Amino acid sequence: MDRKAFLRAGHPPTLLAAFLYFDLAFMVWVLLGPLGVQIAADLGLDHAQKGFMVALPVLAGAILRFVMGVLVDHLGPKRSGAVGQLIVIGALAAAWWFGITSYHQVLLLGFFLGFAGASFAVALPLASRWYPPEHQGTALGIAGAGNSGTALAALFAPGLALAFGWSNVFGLALIPLVLVFVFYLVVARDAPECPPSKPLGDYFKVLKDKDAWWFMFFYSVTFGGFVGLASSLTIYFNTQYGLDAKTAGYFTAACVFAGSVVRPVGGAVADRIGGIRTLSVMYLVAAAFLVLVSFAPPAAWMALAAFVAAMLALGMGNGAVFQLVPQRFRREIGVMTGLVGMAGGIGGFYLASSLGYARQATGSYQAGFLIFAALAVFALLGLTLVKARWRTTWGAAHLTAARI
Question: Which N-terminal stretch is annotated as signal sequence (predicted)?
């Protein structure tokens, strides 16, 4: 990639603001996962309740991504992001000030944290609209590397909870969240070429296009696997291997960091060799390691190695999907980001909740991992079915400079 050409092509300050906004939003989105061991102990939650507690913010974020995607196309990315972030800040402040004393209260907080997950539908259009097709994979990979916020939560939240109490972690999280929000308000700019807003009914027309459904399915596996594991692994390592909450958080952070840091790499590789080819390999690798980990390796470090490999594949797959989406739906990128992101969140909700229910029903996590590995194989088969049509229609060489 020509770095100078990339820097000239867009607006680097907005790209940085989009990354930081996304990063801190994702940090608080999955906060209940790293705190799950302590919360579950204090509130007396069973395996199914723990699974649903960490999965609910993912589901709420999935649904709200579509809402935020529509809002982005009406208000623009910057103002839409400001609205969502103010709601998150208010929810965390209330949880810190008044405290959480019941399962239902923690679920209510989980719903409002879904607005942080919906930041995806803001950060990606904010960055995407500044860059031409040949730089979409790299630009969206950089913005999407805000996934690394989930690693920050896993790395710091359990230790802070031990030192200050888990409810005070909500207040501590407000400090970097507010600082980055101020930076975002000052630095970020909407691109001058934003498509005009459309009547609400027009947004549902994109669902008549079968490619929209394919992208939603593909991302439900890559991002769903990433965020589902990010939300669940602290509890998994604690339950499966008896690691304390802090150590389990470190193990989770290693997995999540691996999946986050390679998202820009996945986008850049997709720019170079094509999103279809990149994504195909990633599905195969992810499925293989999910199957491996389903058999519960005898040592925690073995499971860690398998999860890191799976997360590397899923993270690169996230970047590859969003190298393709803007090529196919350039003018509908706001609503498509919301729809595809919603599907990714639903995939994450399914994985996180199914792991808890599998453990509750069978005493093992195996069924949850195997079913998700099968979904990765189905996604690979689906990609094989559509690739010829994509490369000879909207992805044909005479229509775009991007590699499909």
Answer: none
Q: How far apart are CA 147 and CA 348, in angstroms?
A: 13
Q: What tokens does 101 get?
A: 């004393």
Q: Which two tokens stand for residue 387?
A: 């690739």
Phi, psi of 32 (to 5 degrees): -70, -25
Which of the four pLDDT bands, split at 50, 70 and 90, describes residue 246?
A: very high
Structure tokens given for 117: 């997950």
Instruction: Record the tokens describing residue 152, joined without a space.
Output: 């920050």
Question: Residue 399: what are its φ and ψ, rounded to 5°?
Answer: -105, -25
Residue 194 DSSP class: P
Residue pointed to by tokens 């991007």: 402
Residue 116 contacts residue 180 (beta carbons within 8 Å): no
What average pLDDT score do residues 269-275 get?
A: 87
How many helical (H) and strand (E) elements, i.e. helices and strands, does the chain have?
18, 0
Q: 197 phi and psi, to 5 degrees?
A: -70, 155
- Structure-derived torsion over alpha carbons of residues 309, 315, 319, 321, reported in degrees to the nearest 10: 90
Task: Count CB-CB contacts under 10 A for residue 258.
Answer: 19
- Consecutive H or E run containing 116: helix 103-117
Separation of alpha carbons 57 and 238, rounded Å: 21
Yes or no: say if 148 and 27 are a contact pair by the CB < 8 Å rule: no
SS3 398: coil
DSSP-derived 3-state class of residue 223: helix
Amino acid at 219: Y
Do 51 and 356 contact (CB within 8 A), yes or no? Answer: yes
User: In this predicted structure, what is the pLDDT of residue 399?
Assistant: 66
Taking phi over 0 as left and psi of -120 to 50 as alpha, with beta for the rest, 44 belongs to left
Domain ranges of the chain: 12-392
* DSSP H stretches of helix in 188-274: 200-203, 210-241, 245-261, 263-273
Say which CATH topology domain 12-392 has.
Growth Hormone; Chain: A; (1.20.1250)
| Average pLDDT value for residue range 77-95 | 94
**pLDDT at residue 3 in the model:** 62
Mean pLDDT of 301-325: 93
